[in-house]
Amino acid sequence: MKETKEKILNIMKENNGILKTSMLKFYNISSKNVQKMVKNDEIERIEKGLYLHPDFLKDEYYILGYRVPKGVFSHESSLYLHKLSDENPAFFTLTIPSGWNSPLLKDKENYTFFYLKKELWELGQEKIKTPYGNEVVVYSKERTLAEMISKMDQMDRNLVLHALRTGLKDNLLDRTLLLHYAEHFKSRDRMRTYLEVITE
Asked: CA–CA separation, 98 vs 61, rounded Å?
């Protein structure tokens, strides 16, 4: 068991402290060994089928992405992950396809969910590493800003404009893509106005 325990801990270290049940077959590990380690407080079960190494901190972004597989980090959460906002949001924002459900939808204090039809939900998805080094699905910088600008009256205006200004100044944003995505969210004219004002 000692050998197996070390093997499990090493695998977790190689995966940023994470072990998923789906990985057990690949590494030829019995789930009973994992359960025994949980019982002995040698690793932590943080979610059904998801375990954490004792030397690693919980990556809330990764855990949330695991719990909501159809969720894409968007809006404020996307700006933070793309480093276009210095402020870690007080709540997580995800976009899910219309008709999809999750028990977390009821927790409005910690999560904000937006619904979109499939074509828009799929638009501009990419993978990014969280501050803990784990990959999650997020919307691209340009797509995020185009959508936020399309509903500016519901957004933190200063946050959006700061992200747009910073992104343009540091050459982190592609103007052509900003206008491309703005077209999908019917905010092209508004986007063009902001781009002209900011770069004057």
From this structure: 22
